[in-house]
Every structure is written in structure tokens, then in C-alpha cells.
Amino acid sequence: MRFSRILCLALVVSTSATFAEDANGPYKVINTAKVGGEGGFDYVYADSEARHLFVVRSGKDLGRISVYDLDTLKLIKEIPNVVAGHGVAIDPKSGRGFTSSKPVVMFDAKTLEPIKAIDVSGKPDGIFFEPATERIYVLSHEAPNVTVINPADGTIAGTIEVGGAPEQACADGKGHVYVCVEDKAQVAVIEAKTMKTTGHYDLGENGGTPAGMAMDTTNGILFVYCRAQKMCVIMNAADGKILTTLPTGAGVDSAEFNPKSMESFSSQGDGTLTVIKENDPTQFAVEQTVQTKAGAKCSTLDTKTGQIILITADRSAPAAGERRGATVPGSFTILVVGK
């Protein structure tokens, strides 16, 4: 999930749905907090039960986890010594948190105190908790593609190859893991118990550069968000059959599904949040396109409130020969989208 990746500007028109204006939907930005703090950033993670919001900040001598109060958005604590970090995942049973960094930092999710560093190979990027085996999955664009960690003691359970560069992933809670393979336009299927890749689903002509994924675990529906064509490929998780495709914004990097509202959300770097409504397991529509803020490409779902939290920062005008400008100091901002 590198912000520097070039976004494809090709326009793909879908007859299935069109973008809705903010006024035509229930969601809007309900809170904006410029919290500042220097360093780069990537993923954002909400621990809805503990009411903590985690953002890993990166940069020379700046690597840390910034922990905010999920309700007030005030900074609570910073956990230091995170090298080249991207995201956070938490095992709710053991109460252990982990960073996708090198080494991985293991910490107590309640006290927010570091426990130990875990040496891993590859180049950690994405991270998530797999509930069936109760393990942490660390994703890497370099081999090994996946490092699996036992959260109780921080030992490495094994590694998995998925045949390409993984981005976001999700699990069905029944022992299956689905991983966006960004450079192959595929979804890799993993059996969690054996930690083996058992197959790949092709995303078709509208599925280039998959970078965000969400899942309706009840009905076995995957929402795979693809940068190249600015499309969401919706497929059956059991066999990879494509059900439909719908348009999104440009520069997707995160996605979530809220089973209470039957909505999938995707955050894009162009400053939009796409809301797709699952009317039933065969009928889907773009319900709303919410205007957020440029650069807000990563998001997380607060499962308790149903709100979406996004992060971004301002950038200066690019200098001659540069594609983008530098991050404006102190401009790091948290956005909350809700009804």
C-alpha cells in the first residue's frame, strides 16, 4: 500500500450503477480532527471494544504507533520503536496487538505497552486477524508473501506463498482466507488450518490491480476493489464466480463491510468513499459516493457505531519534476463518516 503508486486514469463506464451525490445518501463527514504528528502513514485500525484507534507513523527516527481515543480522537499514547510500519491487528482473545513492520512489534492491546519484537522476513505491509485459527497474518510484497503468527506467544506458525504481491485480505471465519494479489489481478484462496494456498480466482477484465477487499461472511460474498479500472468486482467466495461489477473512485486502498447495514465501503485517494448496498446476495448498487478529503485512501470500520474512520494529510504543491508535493507538517487529519 504505497501512496506513490500511479493511479490509472482510464474511465470505465458501467451501466449497472452511477455515482450518487452526497445529498442522495445518508452518509456524510460528521467529524474532522487535525491531530498533527509527523511521519508517514498507511493503514488505520479501530479496536471498537477498547475504543482505541491505531495509526502507525513511519520515517527516520519517527517509527511508532499513535493510539487515539476512538470517541474523542484525542491522542492517548504512542508506542515507540516501530520500523517501516504500516498497520495494526489485534487478537481479541489474547489481548495482543501486532504491527506489520520489520521486526513486528507485539504489544498489550489494553495497557498499550510493548511486549517484544518478532523477527520476520519479507517486507511487511498489510495485516489482519484470522478468527478460525486465531492467528495474525502479516502480508508482504516480497517472499514470504504471508507470515503467520501465534498471538499468544508471538511465535511464527508458518509462511504462505500466494503467487504474487498481496494487498488487503479477509477471512470468512470458517477457515478460509482470501487475499488480493495485486500484480496478478487475482484473489488467492488459503486454507487457514493447513496454511496452504488452494486456488486463485481471476478477476476478469475489470479486475486490474486489486487493492481493497471486504466480505459479507454470512452470504459468502467478496467485494474486491481494483485500482486500474476503478471498479469493484463482486464475486461468490465459494467458487470465484463474478456476480457483477460496480464503479468506484480512483486510488482505492481499503475496504470494509458492515453486516448490520449490509453495506460495503471503499476509501479512495481522490477524496471519495464509495458505499455499495447489498440488497440481497445477487443484487448490488452504488448507494452513495461521499466526498471526504484528498489522500484519504485508508479507512476502518467502527463496528459499534457503524462509522467509517479515514486518515489523510495536506500536501504542498509539487516541485518541478516531482509527481506530488511533500506532506505539510502538522496537517495529519482524522475524518469520521457517519449518518
How many domains comprise the coordinates? 1
Distance between the termini: 28 Å
* Average pLDDT score: 92
Strand content: over 45%
| Unreliable sequence segments | 1-21
Largest sheet entry: 4 strands, antiparallel
Helix content: under 10%
CATH architecture: 7 Propeller
Numbering strands along the chain, what is their spatial order in the largest sheet?
1-28-27-26
Explain what this protein looks like in three dimensions.
- The chain is mainly beta and 339 residues long.
- The chain has one domain (22-316, 327-338): Methylamine Dehydrogenase, Chain H (7 Propeller), CATH 2.130.10.10.
- Helix content is 0%, strand content 51%.
- The protein has strands at residues 28-34, 40-47, 52-58, 64-69, 75-80, 88-91, 96-99, 104-108, 114-118, 124-130, 135-140, 146-150, 155-160, 166-171, 176-181, 186-191, 196-202, 210-216, 221-226, 231-236, 242-247, 252-258, 263-268, 272-280, 283-291, 298-302, 307-312, 333-338.
- The strands form 7 sheets. A 4-stranded antiparallel β-sheet has the order 1-28-27-26, with no helix packed on it. A 4-stranded antiparallel β-sheet has the order 2-3-4-5, with no helix packed on it.
- A hairpin with a 4-residue loop joins β16 (186-191) and β17 (196-202).
- The model is unreliable at 1-21 (pLDDT under 50).
